[in-house]
Design a protein that fits this description.
The chain is mainly α and 92 residues long. It contains four helices and no strands.
């Protein structure tokens, strides 16, 4: 079961960068890039919104929202990559 959820180190690094791009980097760099990062992260924002809201409730501060959002995006991307790897392994 654990082997099914494994992803490579390179995939993990890319997933982390992808997960933090919208919540953290978009506020730093500005308008055009922020819009691009929003659209790039859009498939994962529904669950991210819920987890971000839960993190605000748990920690009692709105500063916890980006962390919850980034964690939710990372987990979703990680599961997607694990399923992708599992599918590729079953084809070969």
């Amino acid at each position: 079961m654990i082997n099914r959820l494994c992803i490579s180190k390179a995939q993990t690094i890319v997933a982390i960068i992808y997960a933090i791009a919208f919540p953290f980097l978009s506020g730093v760099v500005g308008d055009e890039l922020q819009t691009f990062l929003l659209f790039a992260a859009a498939p994962f924002l529904a669950v991210g919104y819920i987890v971000g809201g839960m993190s605000v409730s748990i920690f009692g501060s709105t500063k916890a929202y980006p962390f919850g959002l980034a964690i939710a995006i990372f987990i979703q991307v990680w599961l997607l990559l694990a399923l992708w790897n599992q599918r590729a392994a079953s084809k070969s």
